[in-house]
Amino acid sequence: MADPPGCCSACATCLLCPYSCQWITAKKEKRKGLRTTKYDCSWFLFLFCVFLFTLVWLYFAIIILNDFHNFNEFIFRQRKLWLDWSLVLLIATAVLISYSSMLLVFALCLQLCGQPLKLHWVHKILLILTTLVVAAAFTGLGIKWAEEWKSARISLQATGPFLHIGAVGGMTLLAWPLASFIYRTRSTGLRVFLLLVYCAAMIALYLAPLGITSPCIMEENQLPPKPALVGHRGAPMLAPENTLMSLHKAVDCDVQVFETDVMVSADGVPFLMHDEELTRTTNVQAVFPERAALNSTAFNWTDLQQLDAGSWFLERRPFPTVQSLSPGDRKEAAKQRIPSLGQALEAAKQSNISIMFDLRPENHSDYQNFVNVTLEVILQSGIPLQQVLWLPDGFREDVKQQAPGVQHVYGRKRLEDENEPVLHVNLPYQDMSSEEIRQYRQDNVSVNLYVVNQPWLFSVLWCSGVSSVTTNACQVLKEMEHPIWLLPSTTYFMIWIVVDCVSFLIIIWAFVLMK
Q1: Beta-bridge partners for 449
Q2: Hey, CA dihedral for 329, 332, 334, 336, is it positive or negative?
Q3: According to DSSP H, which parts of 443-488 are helical?
Q4: DSSP code of 222?
Q5: In sequence order, which residues have a C-beta less than 8 Å from that of residue 108 and are 6 or more positions away?
Q6: Are residues 106 and 200 in the same domain?
Q7: What are the GP-PDE domain coordinates in residue numbering (predicted)?
Q8: Distance from the first to the final alpha carbon of the chain
Q9: Could you read off the pLDDT of 156-175 as tens digits, one per residue?
Q10: Which residues constitute the domain of residue 273?
Q11: Mean pLDDT over each residue of the chain, to the nearest integer
Q12: Rounded distance between C-alpha atoms, residue 394 and residue 373, angstroms
């Protein structure tokens, strides 16, 4: 390489110390004859790749926050340990991305100052460890939580246009250190190679919008109506899940449907409970320690009424919103008990909202009796049957005969040879594309997708035309009067052209200036 122009001693020292762990000035460095070798360049390239790797993981970490409560519940069922693991994820990710980005900034500044890129061996080891940690995280995600790859695909519909602008801006800024390196190196082959790679990357980025699609690229007058809200176990961010308080809080959030889970006690009383065991959402370990591990259906109704179904919510704080509860809400939460299905139906009838539920466990030997008992409670409650949305697939034909007014919701897509028309479907949000949602909408099929907590995801589904979403965050989605962003196609086209042109001019200026 040719001799670099150098920079002030103070700047050189400040840059070399954290990157190379050497307290030396530019003049001393030059006397020692140290230069950036091909070996050093390879480590810089590795640093750049690690930065991109951790940046992609940061994106995934933000995306999976929508579903992270499910992960917390999974860990509790496996280890009986409750912790908000999303905080651990975000802190660890922030440390990794901060470390790699800091080193990259130091390296680029050293290159601009004409200093050698002598990465210290400690940083090399830490970069390798960072790569292994992120690779392990991606591997675990693919094995245990594969559906999140679909979530990432959906997220690109919300973030694609902005990721494109950010990528163009980042690659444009790289023009300065790249031009500095190209003008200083004596290897013609290396110059040509770097220029070709950089030009190919920029051309790909300039043309990327040709492959970017988003349902939110539409005219304002084409926007479908706002999806209705379905309270997932009520309003679990504001009250203990599957309790009457949670139902009333959901009503305050203007939800149209209270979604819950029903089990049947040993003496035939249907009650609200999601988990097969009572340990997560009650104090069963304190009241019945020797029976705590039993299935929820092994308890009779008298036993269940002795359990506290609210204090766990205040102690474990399953959501950050628990900290902001008023003293009155805290007092009410601590008084919650397990409600029966009859109590929930009465509350839903008085509040004029629908109720949708699963009947668990589906593999129970007495499941048909569960269905019959549940239907009996529904018919005796006096609630209008059109307000009952029936999810369980088992013995569905019997339900249609005994309660013909109940609305049937299917947890699958339509089949080509349906005997009866499917009017309502309830699916994970990852399982339906925007095109399928539009087609179902045209065919007057109601589509409910679950569980949608983040505004970005709600915005994408809103633009796609989904009928309703099941959510933990009804208090957040209630306040949204418009998708986060909505761009007419002509406006997006203008932004695309302007960004590309400005980027091209800045790159040309950078190469001319550095020469």
Answers
A1: 427, 469
A2: negative
A3: 455-464, 474-477
A4: G
A5: 174, 176, 177
A6: yes
A7: 227-481
A8: 15
A9: 999 999 999 999 999 999 99
A10: 228-478
A11: 92
A12: 14
